[in-house]
């Protein structure tokens, strides 16, 4: 990154006895803006967005539990309820309400459900591919009996318990893996995300910061109709953004947009799931205009 202004400061807060980390980009007299990352990601994923918005907003970007520099859940279990509680605690403890939120993927799912629970605390919300599994995927899951889903979950958790964090011999090797994961990333962005996304092990190798257990989804979630009810309770202006080349299902086509009372859906061309990296300028133009 080429901006010469000081970077963010690191802070911690506690939620369900976990020490959770966030970065604060300063400007505390400005309106608060939370940036929530997605699964297997970290808060420094937002650095370019934060740099662009920090003069107008008090930008705060947390690491989700099990991610980045936040502690890992002792039992290796990561539920939506716990993620939502963590977000509620951050907003409550730092007295951020009413807050604006920009959130990606898992972070978007958390933010949408939180906002449906506490609609008066959110001023405006941007969710980047944050509605979770499509209705078709949920129907496939529900067609499998709970007993089978529980067995599959137990098998997966048992497998993950024996999976050691992958070790890379150098930052360069981890950086190459980052580029393989998202072909749209520029070398500069991929290197920045890698540097902030790994820890160096005692033997000198490098491993990603996230807990391998975050790869496992619980055997059951909140019922889909109740999640849709939470979406319907959101009163603030809401922007749902999708990448034209993403695997995610667009809510205008799959019917989920009907559950929102004050939302619009936008698609960004030549962008995948990480569209805020893939088409940064177009993304920032869309989001900046919406937030203003």
What does this structure look like?
- The protein is an alpha/beta fold and 292 residues long.
- It has a domain of 200 residues: Alpha/Beta hydrolase fold, catalytic domain (Rossmann fold), CATH 3.40.50.1820.
- It is globular.
- The two termini are 25 Å apart.
The outline comes out as globular
CATH domain fold name of the domain at 9-138 and 222-291: Rossmann fold
CATH class of the domain at 9-138 and 222-291: Alpha Beta
Estimate the helix proportion, in percent: 25-40%
Cα-based radius of gyration, to the nearest Å: 19 Å
Q: Point out poorly predicted stretches.
A: none
Q: Spell out the helices and strands N to C.
A: EEEHEHEHEHHHHEEHEHEHH
Profile the largest sheet.
Answer: 8 strands, mixed
- State the total count of DSSP E strands: 10
- What is the beta-strand fraction? 15-25%
Mean residue pLDDT: 96
Helix/sheet category: alpha/beta
**CATH-defined superfamily of the domain at 9-138 and 222-291:** Alpha/Beta hydrolase fold, catalytic domain
Q: Provide a count of the helices.
A: 11
* N-end to C-end Cα span: 25 Å
As laid out across the biggest beta sheet, the strand order is 1-2-4-3-5-6-9-10
Provide the CATH architecture of the domain at 9-138 and 222-291. Answer: 3-Layer(aba) Sandwich
List keywords for this structure.
292 residues; alpha/beta; Rossmann fold; eight-stranded mixed beta sheet
């Amino acid at each position: 990154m080429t901006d010469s202004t000081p970077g963010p400061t690191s802070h911690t807060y506690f939620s369900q006895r976990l020490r959770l980390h966030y970065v604060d980009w300063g400007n505390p007299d400005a309106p608060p803006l939370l940036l929530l990352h997605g699964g297997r990601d970290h808060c420094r994923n937002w650095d370019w967005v934060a740099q662009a918005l920090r003069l107008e907003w008090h930008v705060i970007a947390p690491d989700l539990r099990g991610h980045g520099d936040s502690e890992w859940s002792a039992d290796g279990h990561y539920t939506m309820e716990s993620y939502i509680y963590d977000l509620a605690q951050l907003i409550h403890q730092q007295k951020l309400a009413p807050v604006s939120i920009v959130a990606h993927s898992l972070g978007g799912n958390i933010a949408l459900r939180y906002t449906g629970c506490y609609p008066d605390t959110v001023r405006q919300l941007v969710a980047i591919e944050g509605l979770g599994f499509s209705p078709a995927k949920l129907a496939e899951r529900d067609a499998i009996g709970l007993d089978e889903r529980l067995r599959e979950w137990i098998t997966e958790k048992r497998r993950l318990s024996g999976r050691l964090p992958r070790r890379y011999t150098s930052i360069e090797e981890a950086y190459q893996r980052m580029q393989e994961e998202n072909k749209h990333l520029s070398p500069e962005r991929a290197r920045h995300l890698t540097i902030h996304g790994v820890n160096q092990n005692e033997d000198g190798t490098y491993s990603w910061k996230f807990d391998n257990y975050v790869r496992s989804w619980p055997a059951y979630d909140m019922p889909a109709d109740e999640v849709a009810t939470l979406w319907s309770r959101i009163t603030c202006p809401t922007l749902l953004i999708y990448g034209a080349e993403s695997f995610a299902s667009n809510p205008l086509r799959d019917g989920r947009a009907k559950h929102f009372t004050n939302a619009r859906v936008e698609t960004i061309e030549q962008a995948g799931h990480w569209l805020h990296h893939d088409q940064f300028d177009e993304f920032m133009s869309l989001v900046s205009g919406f937030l203003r």
